[in-house]
Amino acid sequence: MGKAVVGLNKPNETKYFFPADGNWKMEMLPMKASTVLAEGAVLQIEISGNDVTGNHTLFATENAAGGDFVGIMAEPVIATDDDYATA
Question: Would you put residue 54 in left (φ > 0), alpha (ψ -120 to 50) or beta?
Answer without folding.
Answer: left
